[in-house]
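Bug #77: duplicate submission created two jobs. Keeping one. Sequence:
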Amino acid sequence: MQSTRAEDEVRAAIAAAEDESATPAERAEMLMEIAMGLQQRPKSAEQILAAVDLYDRALSVCPQDERLLSARIFARKGTALLILPDEGTAALQQARAAFEAAMPSLVDFGRPEELAEAEMNLGLAIQNLAGQHKARITDAISAYQRALRTFDKAHFPKEFAILQNNLATAFLSIPFTDARSKMREALAVQAFEEGLKIVNLIDHPAEYAMLQNNLGNALQYASSSHTLENNLRALDAYDEALKVRLRDTMPLEYANTVANKANCLWNLPDDPERPENGNRANVRAAREYYRESREIFSASGQAEKARTVAEALEQIERELLSATPDDSNQQGGVEHRHLN
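Kept job's structure:
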């Protein structure tokens, strides 16, 4: 039903764009706008593919001298490819190519915020490709930094916060194999904190929660001598994120954050002032959070995340079963992949 509806919308768009009373530029713009409508809150991958097809049709009829319109179509096509479900890298490679094709004309003729948006999206495409060893993460960082020339904290707080988050996650994705690892960790934490100076719980709840969750992850997994202090700060950050990420309204985001909080609790003593007394209560609390997040991931079809949490839960169950009351001073914990 969904694919049939998408096909109907595409046919209607093509018919409208073939109106001979319209100029080629008008037809190209019409196709772009219909594609953008298809792309908004898509209910299936077919709708996104249909949007990509319409963008390609728009490019095919767009006059060569309409450089800015062509660039805008390429940039919109890139955003569609970014959200296309794809287990490989083909869509991401095409998205990167689309953004790069748009850049020269956006530089020459576009508004500064159009160029900055394209740079931000280019950075995201490259960052995702870097995660699959198909691009350099430093190129993503450069794109984000170029976008920040326009998306400053004063005039574009939401975009500034998103860029700080993306920069921080990019810094953290670089393998910690050289002397600059600690510096990159510090830069990541600083970027999250910079973003949180601009967005707040009331005006930008989604961005606020995203930054708090990811700040918690950065603090929790930092290779620092201040592990206890960092974990306590991470716990506070997760609790801030959970003011927005509620199970009823944002179940997957909620599950991501409580799974991260569970791992943090697992590594925290019950009484930070007396760590020698162990962390049995925190381990039990972590177990409940793991159970809850596994239930949500399983019900939502997030098999990989459900498996990751289930492995941690199995380990924590074994730890609790093997421990006696006298063993409560044995602090466990394991670092597993954090969830966004």
